[in-house]
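User: Here's a structure from my thesis project, written as structure tokens. My advisor, Dr. K., wants to see whether a designed sequence matches the one we expressed. Can you design one independently, without my sequence as a hint?
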């Protein structure tokens, strides 16, 4: 069957450019559906999915959107409607990939639609603002989006712009028409694993141990975005178990620090009822932006990972608060949970020669967990540092018991 790609554009400002891209995609053997997310304009839209249909799917109508001066509100309505239509097309097997073009507003809107679709669906965003500071991370978020920086403005059919759109179209066609491995692992065999540099040795050993037992282990950098993406993919059913070595994003969210993984960190696997192994890499440290240091942060024990990143030791009160957040989330889990804690340091940073090493204070977190966790959540303490081979072996054994 011919593959179908969805083109998202604003025909009131980029009609000619969109026509060129659409013809290029058709010439590559793809069927196209055109969605017009324009929020202004009087002329009837020639799109397969015109703005009035997008507005209706978002709970409004195009007349209201066109006449409104509340840009934020109408943008949200349009994004919601476009996302709903795209999801319906996917569920009906009428969508094999999507591509969009735009400046800052168009890119923000189109990538919102892209992020609403599952991992593995080809997504290409041609953007003239891809390199603006702070916007690229906002555009991509946790989505598997290919962000194509056009460099030049998307305005007028010039040879330079044709070259940009030709390359983007060829890239999408390659992803849609090529032989691509399915993102779905064999049922019962896919495990998500969080990791950070200071527990990379442990993560590698755990991965090897589980792979030797026939599992596929998919790693995520737990620096805020990677672990958010993991939560999204757990919700989408990609995994049958989680080894969460580095759930520090829970505390980072409480205090608004750099590795903030959002309000739902450590919740999705529990809601899905899949088994979890939880450990504590980085949980006893925080990473506030240096521009947001409170006065007492300068006085705390700290460890410089490199010239850009500094880990600061949590206080006893903060350890208690973070442990309470862990307990509240894990107590709601409908699947089995084991918490495995290394007694001699929670990462390679936690070693006796480093200033933040304090196993006795770490016990404040452990004891708070014991007090607040449900009795069916196991706490296993191992007399080792997280980077010791014996700890990784204990994690693998605990995982094999519940996976």
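Assistant: Designed independently from the structure alone:
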């Amino acid at each position: 069957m011919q593959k179908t790609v969805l083109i998202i554009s604003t025909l009131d400002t980029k009609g000619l450019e969109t026509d060129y891209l659409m013809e290029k995609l058709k010439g590559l053997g793809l069927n196209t559906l055109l969605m017009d997310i324009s929020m202004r304009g009087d002329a009837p839209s020639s799109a397969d999915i015109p703005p009035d249909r997008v507005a209706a799917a978002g709970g409004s109508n195009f007349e209201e959107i066109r006449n409104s001066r509340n840009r934020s509100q109408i943008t949200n309505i349009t994004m919601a409607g476009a996302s709903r239509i795209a999801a319906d097309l996917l569920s009906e097997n009428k969508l094999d990939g999507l591509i969009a073009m735009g400046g800052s507003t168009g890119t923000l809107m189109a990538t919102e639609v892209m992020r609403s679709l599952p991992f593995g669906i080809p997504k290409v965003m041609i953007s003239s603002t891809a390199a603006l500071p702070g916007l690229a991370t906002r555009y991509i978020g946790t989505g598997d989006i290919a962000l194509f920086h056009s460099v030049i403005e998307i305005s007028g059919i010039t040879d330079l712009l044709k070259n940009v759109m030709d390359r983007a179209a060829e890239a999408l066609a390659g992803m849609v028409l090529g032989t691509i491995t399915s993102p779905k692992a064999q049922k019962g065999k896919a495990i998500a694993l969080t990791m950070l540099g200071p527990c990379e040795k442990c993560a590698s050993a755990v991965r090897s141990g589980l792979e030797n037992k026939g599992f596929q282990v998919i790693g995520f950098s737990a620096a805020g975005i990677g672990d958010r993406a993991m939560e999204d993919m757990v919700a989408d059913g990609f995994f049958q178990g989680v080894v969460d070595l580095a759930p520090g994003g829970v505390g980072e969210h409480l205090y608004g620090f750099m590795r903030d993984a959002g309000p739902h960190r450590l919740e999705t696997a529990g809601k899905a009822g899949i088994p979890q192994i939880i450990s504590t890499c980085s949980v006893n440290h925080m990473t506030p932006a240096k521009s947001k240091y409170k006065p007492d942060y300068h006085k705390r024990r700290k460890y410089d990972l490199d010239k850009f990143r500094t880990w600061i030791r949590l206080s006893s009160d903060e350890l208690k608060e973070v442990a309470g957040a862990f307990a509240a989330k894990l107590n709601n889990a409908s699947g089995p949970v084991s918490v495995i804690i290394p007694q001699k340091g929670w990462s390679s940073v936690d070693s006796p020669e480093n200033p933040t090493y304090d196993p006795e204070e770490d016990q404040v977190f452990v004891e708070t967990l014991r007090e607040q966790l449900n009795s069916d959540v196991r706490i296993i303490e191992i007399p080792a540092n997280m980077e010791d081979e014996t700890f990784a072996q204990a994690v693998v054994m605990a995982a094999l018991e519940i996976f």
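When you compare it with your expressed construct, this may help: The chain has a mean pLDDT of 94.
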